[in-house]
Amino acid sequence: MFGGPNPFSLTLNNVSVEQNNPVKISGFINVTPVPEPATWALMLLGFGGVGLALRRRRKPALAQVA
What we know:
- Helices cover 30% and strands 23% of the residues.
- The chain is an alpha+beta fold.
- It has one domain (9-56).
- The chain has a two-stranded antiparallel sheet.
- It is elongated and about 90 Å long.
């Protein structure tokens, strides 16, 4: 049901248009519920990049009073 070589499928049944009535479409759509591994890798690289940028940010110098 989920996954496989065709991650997206669309089936429409009973498509009809009647005078003075809206279009009636019945059917179902299947999509994969889990992102692909490349998506996870890109997301982790993004989080790592943000973390690295925050870690390397210079802290403001404290004023010293003599």
